[in-house]
UniProtKB/TrEMBL annotation:
This is Glucosamine-6-phosphate deaminase. It comes from Chthoniobacter flavus Ellin428. HAMAP family: GlcN6P_deamin (MF_01241). GO terms for molecular function: glucosamine-6-phosphate deaminase activity; identical protein binding; isomerase activity. Residues 16-224 form the Glucosamine/galactosamine-6-phosphate isomerase domain. Its EC number is 3.5.99.6. Keywords: Allosteric enzyme, Carbohydrate metabolism, Hydrolase, Isomerase. Pfam families: Glucosamine_iso. Catalyzes the reversible isomerization-deamination of glucosamine 6-phosphate (GlcN6P) to form fructose 6-phosphate (Fru6P) and ammonium ion. It is an enzyme of class 3 (hydrolase). The gene is nagB. It catalyses: alpha-D-glucosamine 6-phosphate + H2O = beta-D-fructose 6-phosphate + NH4(+).
Length: 242
């Protein structure tokens, strides 16, 4: 795993955006795996700037998001559909039909999850997957003890993650209990992974992911086995590295 430590989240986000932009320029029909949450926001902002000021063209790009809350409609303000359109898709020229976010309202979740996996394969596989990391080491919403071979499926959030994500909902008890998430195995099949983490709150999870033993108790640690993984962090998130 390549580890890039930057003085702050801003500079780390610029590096991540440049990775995405380079791929999109080299391969206009690239397939991107995308994350939500506070961590990639500055990266999205920079990509929007590159689109508006430099003509970075997303018209042939296909996207697959990692996860969505079960039970939320796409227009619920805290849904990951809404997050992605508000913060990224509405500001670039990606085509709606090339955007994929798990359907939290699917009436048959296992069948939906199978189709999501099939759609990724049909698109040619994910070229670049952007990840954040939970304070417990989760990637996507693969919480500790998730199978390291798992595929897209329904998962239950831990109390810690519901607490961490409370802000968008007003309080932790409003956060749904279940999510649909790409599996760890789905993430491991992507050609390049960029994992981003900012702030001391993520330091322990990053230390486990980068230097700890590979364990399902820190799902991000499996990225040590990924052939092309880039970990871009700020100094806060690096404080527990040896
Ligand atoms: C979001 C996702 C999660 C987040 C993680 C960190 O799509 O898959 O793994 O990346 O929970 O969230 P933030 O960035 O809000 O700290």
């Amino acid at each position: 795993m390549e580890i890039i430590i930057q003085p702050n989240a801003d500079e780390a986000s610029m590096i991540a955006a440049r990775h995405v932009a380079r791929l999109v320029r080299d391969k206009p029909n690239a397939v991107l795996g995308l994350a939500t949450g506070s961590t990639p926001l500055m990266m999205y902002r920079e990509l929007v700037r590159m689109h508006k000021e430099q003509g970075l063209d997303f018209s042939e790009v296909t996207t697959f998001n990692l996860d969505e809350y079960v039970g939320l409609s796409p227009d619920h303000p805290a849904s990951y559909h809404a997050f992605m359109w508000d913060n990224f898709f509405s500001h670039i020229n990606v085509k709606r039909e090339r955007v994929h976010v798990p359907d939290g309202q699917s009436s048959h979740v296992p069948a939906f999850c199978r189709k999501y996996e099939e759609a990724i394969v049909a698109a040619g596989g994910i070229d670049l997957q952007v990840l954040g990391i939970g304070s417990d080491g989760h990637i996507g919403f693969n919480e500790p003890s998730s199978s390291l071979a798992s595929r897209t499926r329904i998962k239950t959030l831990t109390a810690q993650t519901r607490e961490d994500n409370a802000k968008a909902f007003g309080s932790a008890d409003q956060v749904p209990f279940h999510v649909i998430t790409m599996g760890v195995g789905t993430i491991m099949d992507t050609r390049h992974v960029i994992i981003l983490a900012f702030g001391e709150k993520k330091a322990e999870a990053i230390a486990g992911a980068v230097e700890g033993p590979i364990t399902a108790m820190n799902p991000a640690s499996i990225l040590q086995m990924h052939p092309v993984a880039t970990c871009i962090i700020d100094e806060g998130a690096a404080t527990k590295l040896k």
